[in-house]
Structures are given as C-alpha cells and as structure tokens.
Amino acid sequence: MLHPKTNIRRSAFGVLLAMFTVSLVSACTTQPLSSEEARLRQRQEARLMILGAGPEEVRQELLALAASLGVAADVELPGYVANPFAYLGRAALFVLSSSWEGMSNALLEAMACGCPVVATRCPTGTVEVMGDGRFGPLVEIENAAALADAMARRLAQPREAARLVARATEY
C-alpha cells in the first residue's frame, strides 16, 4: 500500500521519459505512484525516476508497488538530488499528481526548464499555473486512467519549451 502522505514524483532518462515530482513525506496525498507509468507503458516505452528523500519504509513501499505492477526495471528512486534542473531539462514530461497543492514550485520549475507538464486539477495552484489547461493537460484527482491518457497525449505533442518558459516567468 502506498503511504497516504506520499507526494513527490520526478522522472528519469530513457527512450521516453515521464517526470514526476515526489516528496516522500508531504501533507499532500497522491495517486499510486507507478500505476500511471504502468498504464502508460501499455502504450509506449517509458521510464520513471522519483527524486526526493523520505522514510526508508515509504521508499520500500514504492519499490514494492513498482514490482507488483511489473515496472520495477524502469523505476529509479535515487533520493535527494541537489540539482533537479538537470533532470527537468532532459525529461520528456513532468507529471504533478497531487491531491492538494498551493502554488507548486515543482510545476513552475519544470515549466521554467521547458519541460512539458501534466497535472491534476487541485483545488488551488495547478489550474492557475496551467492556465486552465492551456499549458498542459489537467486531470481529475485520483483518476489514474485519465492521467495516463493525458501523459500519452502530451508526449505526442510538440514540446513548446519557449511557451512553457514564458508562462513560468509570469510567476
């Protein structure tokens, strides 16, 4: 079972990348980590990297979940990384799947790096930053199938890095 307070998901390098922000301990809850990647991998190759530190128990739960979904070979959890921008600049996609956000710095950082984004429609923050979907798909919270669909759609579209960077600079 995924820890109820798990929040950050950030992705890695691969043929196709899905970037997730994940703080292994947070006040926010999120959808099950690897279920979106497992659904996406049914359609196309993808890798997932989760950057962030947290309790070893949560890390082990995430690894067990990835194994149970059959995606363990394509999931990495390197822990805290001093410079996430190096990852964001190379990621094919950043996915923020939180149930709650204020003003998401992680989402703005991804956009500032020109990384395509997908996010959940949180009560505050993501809808405004994403221009109600003009800068990337917004999906309902706790809907892994819709999130996987949005990820696949966004990966198939042009990157539009300059447009994303310009939007991030508004904040």
Task: Kindly describe this structure.
With 171 residues, this protein is α/β, with parallel strands linked by helices. 35% of the residues lie in helices and 14% in strands. It has 7 helices and 6 strands; from the N terminus they run βαβαβαβαβαβαα. A 6-stranded parallel β-sheet has the order 3-2-1-4-5-6, with helices on both faces. Strand 2 (47-51), helix 2 and strand 3 (75-79) form a beta-alpha-beta unit. The chain starts with 16 loop residues before the first strand and ends with a helix.
Trace the largest sheet across and list its strands.
Answer: 3-2-1-4-5-6
Succession of helices and strands: EHEHEHEHEHEHH
Percent in strands: 5-15%
Distance from N terminus to C terminus (CA atoms, Å) equals 36 Å
Using only C-alpha atoms, the radius of gyration works out to 14 Å
Mean pLDDT: 75
Gross morphology is globular
Q: Classify the helix fraction into a percent range.
A: 25-40%
How many helices? 7
Main pleated-sheet profile:
6 strands, parallel
| Total beta-strand segments | 6
Low-confidence segments: 1-34
Derived from helix and strand composition plus strand pairing, the structural class reads alpha/beta
